[in-house]
Write a structure and sequence with these properties.
Elements: E1 8-12, H1 22-35, E2 40-43, H2 51-61, E3 66-69, E4 72-73, H3 79-92, E5 97-102, H4 106-113, H5 120-137, E6 141-143, E7 148-150, E8 164-167, H6 172-181, E9 184-185, H7 192-206, E10 213-222, H8 226-237, H9 244-253, E11 263-265, H10 267-280, E12 284-288, H11 295-317
Parallel strand pairs: 1-2, 1-12, 2-3, 3-5, 4-5, 5-8, 8-9, 9-10, 10-11, 10-12
Antiparallel strand pairs: 6-7
């Protein structure tokens, strides 16, 4: 029997192939995982659904469930508009929304949107400044080199202030921005060694020692057929092996391919792997790609995630923190 972890373990949700309605399917999945005791769900941003809007819908439809984005690229999105979306999602979810943002890279932004940010870290810092000011008071008056944002009047909505703010930060400069201007980092495919030796120290140094959230995203599939599932998951992770920032992480972890960071195996194997992230300094976890082993393995994975935090998530549903 696995022992519970001292942190929340959420899950990233994606539309199932057989779904007739994308949003309705995600809401149904969210109800299922919440019923199993999973305390939080996360939504990635692609070119189909809008992750922040989806989080707002799920947060309103499944009371007590925490929701967040992992992550929304900042490049083509003005931070003042994103702040309005974030406060709406926070109000809809009863104050349980976390906005996770990241830097996609100027080349990808230009290829997709026809625009790009030439100084991504400078843009990140200014965008975070706008988001942080807005969530604190609903008032922004910022004119920088990268971003101009001004509210004509206080723009906070009741119940929307104080949303969580995380950055997909791995490098020294982005970790500094996350520690100074946000609540912490939401790294994906970042092993325990990198979290312990790079992410946590970087955040603490920039925050002056103040605690920061580290929400680690981990590929998780509970199965008795680990070799087959690992081969099924590998192609989904090939892309990350081509990204320089991720390659530096893999080198630091001493691995050749990100599949080596995936936790694929029985309940005991996966629980031990997740505990390594907690021991490294992760304050929360979320499992992703849980569907790549098939429906039975996914349900088994969700059951494990709920079991790992069931008592504490039940307390949260009763308003206990």
């Amino acid at each position: 029997m696995v022992s519970r972890l001292p942190v929340d373990v959420g899950v990233a949700l994606w539309q199932r192939a057989r779904a007739e309605n994308h949003v309705a399917d995600i809401v149904d999945q969210a109800r299922v995982v919440h019923g199993l005791g999973v305390p939080a769900v996360w939504f990635g941003q692609r070119q189909d659904h809008d992750a922040t809007t989806l989080a707002a819908v799920v947060g309103a439809q499944v009371p007590g469930l925490s929701v967040g984005t992992s992550v929304v690229p900042l490049g083509p999105r003005h931070p003042l508009v994103l702040a309005g979306q974030a406060q709406t999602a926070n109000a809809a979810s009863g104050g349980r929304f976390t906005l996770g943002v990241g830097v996609a890279g100027p080349d990808r932004d230009r290829a997709t949107f026809g625009v790009g940010v030439d100084r991504p870290i400078a843009h990140l810092r200014e965008a975070l400044t706008v988001l942080d000011d807005f969530r604190a008071a609903g008032v922004v008056d910022h004119a920088g080199d990268q971003v101009t944002a001004r509210t004509a009047a206080p723009s906070a909505i009741a119940g929307g202030g104080g949303f969580g703010l995380l950055v997909a930060a791995l490098g020294e400069q982005s970790l500094r921005a996350a520690g100074e201007l946000a609540d912490g980092s939401i790294p994906f495919l970042t092993g325990p060694r990198t979290i312990a030796e790079r992410v946590v120290p970087g955040l603490l140094q920039s925050s002056g020692g103040a605690p920061r959230r580290v929400v680690a995203g981990v590929v998780v599939v509970v199965t008795d057929d680990a070799d087959r599932v690992r081969e099924a998951v590998r192609p989904a992770l090939d892309f990350y092996a081509t990204v320089p920032s991720y390659r530096s992480v893999f080198a630091a972890e001493g691995i050749a391919h990100p599949i080596e960071l995936a936790l694929i195996g029985d309940e005991e194997t996966v629980a031990r792997g997740l505990r390594r992230y907690v021991d490294a300094g992760a304050t929360e976890l979320y499992a992703t790609q849980t569907d790549l082993g098939g429906p039975e393995a996914q349900r088994r994975t969700w059951n494990l995630l709920g079991a790992l935090t069931r008592d504490r998530s039940a307390g949260r549903r009763q308003g206990l923190h």
